[in-house]
Amino acid sequence: MTPIEQSLMNALVGPITCTGESAEACYHLPEDFEGFNGHFPGHPILPAILQFMLGRLVCSALAGESLRVTSISRAKFSHEIQPEVDIFVQAVRKDISAENIHRFSVTLTVGAAQASTFSLFCVAEQEHA
User: Fold this and answer.
1) Tens digits of per-residue pLDDT, 60-108?
2) 8 A C-beta contact, residue 28 and residue 87
3) Residue 1 pLDDT grade (very low, low, confident, very high; cuts 50, 70, 90)
């Protein structure tokens, strides 16, 4: 796990809850979270890549194994995610292909606002020898 992924995991509020083919979690990122550095000075917002990482962490919990993202589609960002807010992440597994590619639909919500939606295509993370 990378240092930024560990920081994201440390921001988890409570457990990741998995039910059937869906999972949800809540994260709270403090103002000094390193992912806000430089994006943007004076008006920090969570970069898209870190929103994808939050989604992948929840998808991995749902799959019961560490996943690697192979592609992303249908990404829409409709609300900025700023520091010190609760970020609700919901992932729904849509299917698993014959090649063991998991397809997830992911939604990030802040308050009553849908912040982003995207599809993640993932495979099991391979251990490096």
Assistant:
1) 999 999 999 999 999 999 999 999 999 999 999 999 999 999 999 999 9
2) yes
3) confident
Per the DSSP assignment, residues forming a β-bridge with 42 are: none
- Which stretches within the chain are classed as H helix? 3-10, 48-63
Which of 19-57 are b and which e, b meaning 16 or more Cβ less than 10 Å from the residue's Cβ? eeeebbbbbebeeebebbeeeeeeebbbbeebbbbbbbb
- Contact call for residues 59 and 92 (beta carbons, < 8 A): no
Q: Across the strands, what pairs with 61?
A: none
Could you read off the pLDDT of 47-59 as tens digits, one per residue? 999 999 999 999 9
SS3 content of the chain, % helix, strand, coil (to 5): 20, 45, 35
Query: How many distinct helices (H) and strands (E) make up the chain?
Result: 2, 6
Does this model's pTM top 0.90? My answer is yes
| Rounded Cα–Cα distance for residues 46 and 38 (Å) | 10
CA distance 30 to 127: 31
